[in-house]
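Researcher: Go.
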Amino acid sequence: MIAPLLLAVAAAAEPCTPFKGGPAEGMCPGTILSQDGMLQIIALLPAREAGGPIPTETATTIAAALADYDRGAPLPAALRTGDATVSFCAEMSPACQERAPLTDWRVPAGLRHNAPYLLADGRIRIEWMRGDRLALLSFVTIAANKLADIRTAPAEMPMMRR
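Model: Structure:
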């Protein structure tokens, strides 16, 4: 019983080389979920360090939107641009590209969000945890200090095998 626990703790403390740039910036590769020839789908691990400082107005908008998620409330119109969109997919598929009008996060209840992470392109990444496992990632686009787009998908990515 103790051996598996020690292995789990050792694996969690194992150093990793975080991705530099792109949507997975600051995150580390996790386990291989599937493989087809030279292509692997890997799970992503949460960022171990915070991203850059988020502008105050953007941070306020994100904090208010996450508070609404925590309460199970829809996103108020005051937080959204007039043509704000959302996409959600529980597994990678063409459906991940479908957009709908933004009214809420469309993230299953019971997930816990980590601190927002500012990406180099100005989007904000939200890491959604199920227990101690990273489950989903949301990428939030802000325009005029309002939510313009939220794309949520599984916390995984394709990589070419070496």
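Model: Residues 46-155 form a domain with the Nuclear Transport Factor 2; Chain: A, fold (CATH 3.10.450).
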